[in-house]
Amino acid sequence: MHRRSLLARLVTIALWPRATHAEPLSAPARVGYLGIARGPLYDAFLNGVREYGYVDGQNLLVERRQYEGNIPRLPALAAELVGLKVDVIFATGPAPVKAVTKATRAIPLVAIDLESDPIQSGFAVSLSRPGTNLTGVFLDLPDLIGKWLDFMLAMVPRLSRMAILWDPATGRAQLEAATVAARALNVELKVWEVHGPEDFDRQLTAAARARPDALVQLSSPLIFLQAKTVSDFALKTRLPAISLFRAFLESGGLMSYGPDIADLYRRCGLYVGRVLKGVRPGELPIERPSKFELVINLKTAKALGLTIPPSLLLRADQVIE
Questions:
Q1: How many domains does the chain have?
Q2: What CATH number should be reported for the domain holding residue 102?
């Protein structure tokens, strides 16, 4: 009996540390998401975060808040994410980024903003070392917009009047760049403002009555979501048009010139992963896309009665037939 009792006590002692010092299950990382992107762009973002070992539904919880283009809702949605004390916030577009920067300077913020200058907007001290709670991907607009006008002039050699579709919520930087580029090319601009989805039919109809030779869509999350509406209008009115977003071209539009947006979302996911690993956003350089692609929809060009000049075809990265 004495031997059995001793063995029992030894077994108990051996097991005791496991019972009292077991590692607790760690809580999942929490990411706040504020924007309007869904589908492939959101998936690309999650793929980027996954490269740092964070899987949605396992060790990652994403608190999604989508404003659906309703900008007045943004301050409340940003405050809600801050109140949840998430580990990092991912904001997509200039209006969501502004809302989050006003709501917190403490919670790390990764941003994708294709319309704002991060230095002029006060988001960062410098591109190489932001020095704030923000980092991410921002687009350098003036040179890009000049290229849009160059491509459109090559497509429509007699171009003299151009319609500009502009979302004022993105700020005036793009509009000013377009004005400077048009003046250099001796092209007259007429600006048509859109503030919400309900504005597109009315403004596009008014633009058609002004009889422009071409349409340039300035970059905007709102305009991105209305790519099909704009492409249908352009085909119906036989109006050559160009956009930053390939989604416009894939919806039947004529031309797109810009970066791979899905890859930019993936890169923001990588930054979120690095922040979750402990890197401070102010030490992560703000990225500028360096690769841009010109894509031309040959079927749409034929429907519009346009002959694509060989020089433009040679510059195209892809021609869709």
A1: 2
A2: 3.40.50.2300
Indicate the average pLDDT of the chain: 90
Are 77 and 67 in the same domain?
Answer: yes
User: Does residue 116 belong to any structural domain of this protein?
Assistant: yes
Q: How buried is 149 (Cβ within 10 angstroms: 0-12 exposed, 13-18 middle, 19+ buried)?
A: buried
- Picking from 72, 71, 67, the residue whose alpha carbon sits closest to that of residue 34 is 67
CA angle 138, 141, 144 (to 5 degrees): 120
State whether 175 and 252 are in the same domain: yes
Judgement on whether residues 229 and 297 belong to the same structural domain of the protein: yes
Q: 109-147: per-residue pLDDT in tens?
A: 999 999 989 998 999 999 999 999 999 999 977 778 889
Exposed / middle / buried, residue 17 (Cβ in 10 Å: 0-12, 13-18, 19+): exposed
Say how many C-beta atoms besides its own lie within 10 A of residue 281's C-beta: 24
Domain housing 43: 29-139+261-283
Show Cβ contacts of residue 195 under 8 Å, excluding neighbours closer than 6 positions.
Answer: 167, 168, 169
Confidence of residue 37 (pLDDT cuts 50, 70, 90): low
Percent of the chain with pLDDT over 90: 80
Does residue 120 share a domain with residue 103? yes
Residue 304 sits at φ, ψ, to 5 deg, of: -85, -5
Quick one: 176 and 279 in the same domain? no
CA 160 vs CA 3, 142, 186: distances in Å: 103, 20, 7
Residue 243 CA neighbour count, 13 Å, CB half: 28
What per-residue confidence (pLDDT) applies to 244? Answer: 94
The reported pTM is 0.86
Phi-psi region of 192 (alpha: psi -120 to 50; beta: other; left: phi over 0): beta
Specify whether 192 is located in the same domain as 219: yes
